[in-house]
Amino acid sequence: MPLFSPTITDYWKSLFLNGDIIYNDGKFTITINPDLSEDSRLMVLETTDGRFWAVLTPEMADKLDLSKGRKLSDLVFRQKLKEVGVTLHGADYIFYFSEAEKNVLLQESLEGSLRQLTEQDDAVFSKFESSASEQDLDDAYVELDHWAVYGSFEHNRLVCAASMYPWEEDTQIADLGVLTLTSFRGKGHARKVVRSISKYAFEQGYETQYRCQLDNEASTFLAKAAGLTLFGKWDVISPECTVGKSR
């Protein structure tokens, strides 16, 4: 059995291998794709199996002086970025459920004081939001109007919520955000909510995607505790970077 669903691996291949592959040595691959949006005119992916993929627009390739037939490596590539002043936004860890763990989850009977939330829970959710900091709300991006929302309760109070939305059109991947109120952390609420909403997503034909910044140790710990497996590190060009930007 493959580690991850073809839905996941095919998505990343379509993102990074669609175009003119100018270098590929089995470990390091560079692809030029003229159809990338300005915000995504340069992206990199490092997978846990040791591969490094980069995709960029022809304009970015010219700025970096990249052409076919030249010996390259991820170190050389990063040095070229530095030389021309290209900065990246800051990598995210990308986690998914393995096929084996997904099968386990689908057989689980998830219990406890948690349930799916709907628009009828507006007052409950508003109270939950008012108890969280602006920073936590921004980081988690949990919204009641997302495609799926689940919450965990303690003494009839919503203390943890997770929501999902389709990652991109025509892609059966749902991006997940989760937030637990500070005083209720460490009690297992987030783990149960992540697994519950993920089971729902699987039953709807979607794969759960969990992202967090590399220095967010608590979020990384939660991903692993919930049964997710690290797929890789993904980064895009910084929004502030003007190199290679169309005018």
Automatic annotation (TrEMBL):
<feature type="domain" description="N-acetyltransferase">
    <location>
        <begin position="112"/>
        <end position="244"/>
    </location>
</feature>
<dbReference type="InterPro" id="IPR016181">
    <property type="entry name" value="Acyl_CoA_acyltransferase"/>
</dbReference>
<protein>
    <submittedName>
        <fullName>GNAT family N-acetyltransferase</fullName>
    </submittedName>
</protein>
<dbReference type="InterPro" id="IPR000182">
    <property type="entry name" value="GNAT_dom"/>
</dbReference>
<dbReference type="Pfam" id="PF00583">
    <property type="entry name" value="Acetyltransf_1"/>
</dbReference>
